[in-house]
């Protein structure tokens, strides 16, 4: 394109400016409002809302300038290959272990980026990263089952220390931190117990042994800390969740083996909301089940089997899972689920008072929803 009387460089600059303005106008156009998905479905009183699914960098929110630059030079589209564990600081950083690439994937919502944690400094460290946890200072803890260790990194993703090793751990999987007590809980799947360390890495004691009785485990997976400090453990092969006090004393069993909608077959991920709801991913049942912590009562289930991309169709399918694994509940009662064989992360929100203040549910009184959250 040449405009008479103008140099070629000037023409190109004007053309680029014109295209950029058109691009910005397109970005500023009203976006179609996505349908809201709740569980239970309306008109019943809902408890949970689906927010979004993330496969990688292409799913991150981006401004007009960033989109324009990427349209010219291309974008680095890092995508997950087999997400397994997940943790979030509740302020825009989400960490996901990817066992296929032996790395931790970092979703930075503030920067709209997806990267591998630590870059070259961390690259090659992991063989089979599984569990994740964050302490009060933002340090990142990563369990590596093959290396029989927990690796600790600073908030800036710099190596800090290593905890465990073959002397104390056999196959570390789930991680949880009680900041008040300064304790790190590590589920040791092949040892059928939980190893407890202080945050400097000193081994303290173990909880449990192999078996099916109260306080015993068969291949425990994820572990979470409830608001009251109690420990919640996915007792995977026993098809149940156990609640213990901080020192390992048995309190109750949650869930039972079965084929019903709220029964468990292969529980993997666990998390607890501020209101005392236990969320559990069932890898074999391809669902997420919600229980009341105070008495273990089953409340509802979310999902069902869905294979992303099957039959040539690629849909979001909110709540559709294929062998979900890790689960984490952040300080905002936002729930993150590693939908492993769909190669994505699904994000949900428990409908608490803070969230409903900004996102009321049309046709349902906020008071009715909050009443459902009462113990």
Describe this structure as you would to a colleague.
It is a single chain. This protein has 375 residues and is mainly beta. It has helices spanning 8-28, 64-73, 353-358, 366-372, and strands at 38-39, 48-54, 83-88, 93-98, 103-108, 113-116, 129-134, 140-144, 149-153, 159-164, 172-178, 183-188, 193-198, 203-207, 220-225, 231-235, 240-244, 250-254, 267-272, 277-282, 287-292, 298-305, 320-321, 327-329, 334-339, 344-350. The strands form 6 sheets. The chain has a 5-stranded antiparallel β-sheet with strand order 1-2-26-25-24, with no helix packed on it. A 5-stranded mixed β-sheet has the order 19-20-21-22-23, with no helix packed on it. Strand 24 and strand 25 form a beta hairpin. The longest helix is centred in the N-terminal third of the chain and has 21 residues, at 8-28.
Short description:
The chain is mainly β and 375 residues long. It has helices at 8-28, 64-73, 353-358, 366-372; strands at 38-39, 48-54, 83-88, 93-98, 103-108, 113-116, 129-134, 140-144, 149-153, 159-164, 172-178, 183-188, 193-198, 203-207, 220-225, 231-235, 240-244, 250-254, 267-272, 277-282, 287-292, 298-305, 320-321, 327-329, 334-339, 344-350. The longest helix is centred in the first third of the chain and has 21 residues, at 8-28.
Feature tags:
375 residues; 4 helices; five-stranded mixed sheet; mainly beta
List the helices and strands and how they pair.
Elements (H helix, E strand, L loop, with lengths): L7 H21 L9 E2 L8 E7 L9 H10 L9 E6 L4 E6 L4 E6 L4 E4 L12 E6 L5 E5 L4 E5 L5 E6 L7 E7 L4 E6 L4 E6 L4 E5 L12 E6 L5 E5 L4 E5 L5 E5 L12 E6 L4 E6 L4 E6 L5 E8 L14 E2 L5 E3 L4 E6 L4 E7 L2 H6 L7 H7 L3
Parallel strand pairs: 22-23
Antiparallel strand pairs: 1-2, 2-26, 3-4, 4-5, 5-6, 7-8, 8-9, 9-10, 11-12, 12-13, 13-14, 15-16, 16-17, 17-18, 19-20, 20-21, 21-22, 24-25, 25-26
């Amino acid at each position: 394109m040449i405009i008479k009387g103008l140099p070629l460089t000037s023409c190109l600059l004007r053309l680029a400016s014109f295209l950029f303005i058109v691009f910005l106008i397109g970005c500023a156009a009203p976006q179609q409002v996505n349908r809201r998905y709740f569980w239970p479905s309306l008109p019943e009183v809902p408890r949970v809302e689906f927010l979004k699914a993330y496969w990688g960098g292409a799913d991150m929110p981006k401004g007009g300038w960033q989109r324009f630059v990427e349209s010219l030079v291309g974008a680095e589209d890092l995508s997950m290959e087999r997400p397994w564990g997940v943790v979030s600081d509740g302020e825009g950083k989400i960490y996901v272990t990817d066992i296929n690439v032996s790395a931790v994937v970092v979703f930075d919502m503030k920067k709209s980026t997806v990267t591998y944690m630590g870059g070259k400094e961390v690259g090659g460290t992991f063989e089979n990263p599984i569990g994740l946890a964050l302490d009060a200072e933002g340090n990142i803890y990563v369990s590596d089952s093959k290396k029989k260790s927990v690796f600790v990194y600073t908030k800036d993703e710099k190596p800090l220390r290593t905890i465990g090793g073959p002397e104390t751990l056999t196959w570390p999987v789930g991680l949880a931190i009680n900041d008040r007590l300064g304790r790190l809980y590590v589920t040791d799947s092949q040892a059928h117990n939980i190893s407890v360390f202080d945050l400097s890495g000193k081994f303290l004691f173990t909880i449990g042994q192999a078996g099916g009785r109260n306080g015993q485990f068969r291949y425990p997976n994820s572990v979470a800390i409830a608001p009251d400090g109690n420990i919640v453990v996915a007792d995977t092969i026993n098809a149940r969740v156990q609640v213990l006090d901080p020192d390992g004393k048995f309190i109750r069993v949650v869930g039972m083996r079965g084929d019903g909608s709220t029964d468990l077959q292969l529980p993997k991920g666990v998390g607890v909301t501020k209101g005392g709801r236990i969320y559990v991913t069932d890898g074999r049942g391809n669902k997420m089940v919600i229980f009341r912590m105070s008495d273990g009562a089953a409340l509802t289930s979310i999902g069902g089997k869905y294979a992303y991309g099957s039959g040539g169709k690629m849909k979001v399918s909110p709540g559709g899972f294929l062998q979900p694994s890790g689960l984490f509940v952040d300080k905002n009662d936002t729930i993150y689920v590693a939908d492993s064989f769909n190669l994505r992360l699904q994000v949900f929100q428990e409908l608490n008072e803070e969230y409903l203040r900004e996102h009321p549910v049309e046709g349902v009184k906020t008071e009715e929803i909050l009443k459902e959250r009462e113990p």
